[in-house]
What we know:
The structure holds two protein chains of two kinds. By secondary structure, chain A is mostly helical. Chain A has helices at 14-17, 39-46, 49-66, 70-93, 103-114, 124-153, 169-188, 190-201, 206-213, 217-235.
Amino acid sequence: MRSEICVSPRDEFRTINTSRCQKDSCLAPLENGENTIDVSRVDAVCSGRPQADNMSDATVMLAAIEAGDSNAAEQLLVLVYDELRRLAASKLAHEAPGQTLQPTALVHEAWLRLVGDKTPAFNDREHFFRASAEAMRRILIDRARRKHTRRHGGEYHRVDFEGFDLAAPAADNQLLAVNEALDKFASEHPIQADLVKLRYFAGMTNEEVSQVLGISLSTVKNYWTFSRAWLLNEIGGQ
Amino acid sequence: MNGDPDRELVVFTEALKVPIQERAAFLEIACAGDENLRHKVEALLRAKDRLGNFLEEPPTGAPEA
C-alpha cells in the first residue's frame, strides 16, 4: 500500500491516503526548521474536511496496529510526528519568545485532532501514546541538534523559528546525552526504555504510563527509579 | 558480558528496600558471587543517591533559570 507519490489530501482513495507523504514526511534530519512545515499539509489539516481524513487515517491505523499490521505502526508514527511538529510550530509562532514546548499538552491535543474525543477502542491510547512518545523524542532531538549546530556553526544572527532559542546548552546537552544512552538502555531493558520515552519525552505522569504500558503504578515507580539511575550512571562520566 | 538485565533490575529494586547499613550483606547474598552484577548494582545505587531532579522534568527546551 505504500505510495511513492504524495497524494493530495482530497484524494478519494483512502487506502493510499493512509500512507501519503511518506516521502516528505519530515522524519529525515532537517536543516531548516522554517522550511520543514509543509504548508499544504497545514492547510489541509486546518481546513475542515481533510482533517476528518486525518482523523480517520489515525483510527484506521490504530485498528490495523491492533490487528498486527507492522506497517501501520510506522504510518501512525509518521502521521503523529507531522501533527506534533505542526502543533509545536504553530503554538510557538503565536506565543511570546521564551515559550516552552509542553509535550504532554501537545500529545493530548494531537490525540483530539487525530482521533477525536470519542471513547477509544481497546489499546488505541497505548498505540497512540507510544507513537507520540517516539515522535516527541525525534522532534526534541532534532531541535536540540539544530540548536547545537547553530551555536557551533556561526549562524548567530539567525532567528530561530521556534522563537525561544535563548539557549539552554546544559539542558540540550543532557537531552542529547540521555537520547544516546537510551539506545543502549533499550537493548538491555526495552520496557524500561519505553517508560523513559513516555515519561521523559512525552511528559506523561506515572498514572498515564501505568495505563499505556499495562503495568501497576508501583512497578512504574520502581522502573522509573531504576531507569533514571541507569541513565545517570551511563552518562555520568561525560 | 551483560548477564541477565532483569537481575540487575530486581536486585537494585530490592536493595533499595533494605536499610543502608544492611545493603552490603544483602548484595552479598543476592548477587551470589556474581561480581559483575554486584558492581553494576553498586554503581546504580550510587547513581540513585545523586539523582536529584534528573529526568523529572520533560525536556521542554526552556531557557535555564
